[in-house]
Structure formats: structure tokens, C-alpha cells
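Make up an example, fold above all:
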Amino acid sequence: LWGDITERGCVGRQSARKDQLDIISMAETTMMPEEIELEMAKIQRLREVLVRRESELRFMMDDIQLCKDIMDLKQELQNLVAIPEKEKTKLQKQREDELIQKIHKLVQKRDFLVDDAEVERLREQEEDKEMADFLRIKLKPLDKVTKSPASSRAEKKAEPPPSKPTVAKTGLALIKDCCGATQCNIM
């Protein structure tokens, strides 16, 4: 695919770059293998953050739809409850019972969704901790290899990986409060 190293001229450059740890590569780059690994880890981290965000948005969309469905059923139930008991037909009483059961099932489904979101958040927190530790370990050896004595004076601390977007506790509280006794906070 890349051809012979001699055809690409890398061998000729090898002697010119003895001071750069004798790196021979088929790729046109001056990156060290450790730097490439670190870059790949960062890209993997970014991909994970995007997948997590997509998952959170799906949770939110499901939650909004469940809230909407619950509110629609509650409104229909309120209309039936407003009818005096003596004036209700058998069909209206049956519909009232059906609505209560449907609302109950949707609330249970929503509770499961909220619990699932919390479990996912905790799992992601643990993954973030592991990734931060991994990157910290990877950055230390890289700093020793790539920094010159002059640049070590202006040493910068390694930044932790970008924080992942999560459903904040206030967001979870909003989700849990949604469709309760008061109007839906999300709607």
C-alpha cells in the first residue's frame, strides 16, 4: 500500500534525523509513537463523549414523549372525573379505569427510564475516572520524551479529559418531578 521504505525516501531521512530518536515511518509525520497513541486515545474519548451525548438526548426525547402521553391521559381522565358519578355511563367508568391503568404503566415506564439514566450516569462517571487515570499515566512518560530542558521551566500541567455532557442532578430532579402533581416542567 505505502510502498517500500526506500521508494518513499524515509531511509535517506533516517540519517538526517538521528537526533530525533531514529524514527522510521511510512507516514509523513514527525509524531512519536507515544504521541500517536495519545492522539488516538483523545479521539476515542471524543467519540465516547459524542455517543454518550446521543444516548442522553435519546433518554430526554423518550422522557418528553412519556410526559406528553401522561399529560394527555391525565387531561382525558380529568374530563371524565369532572362528570358527576350519577351521570357517568358504564362505558365512561370503564374508560376511567383504563386511563388510570395506562397512566400507571407510563409512570412505571418513566421511572424505569429515570433509574436507567442514573445507572448510566454512574457507569460513565467510573469510565471517566479510569480514562483520566489512563491519560495521566500516558502523559507522564510523554512529557519526559518530548520536552527539552528549556521547555521544562515553562511546564504546563496536563489537562484532564474534557468533561462529558451528563444529565445533571438538577436535570434528573426535573425529570423525576415531571408529570407529578403539578404541570410537567419539561413541557
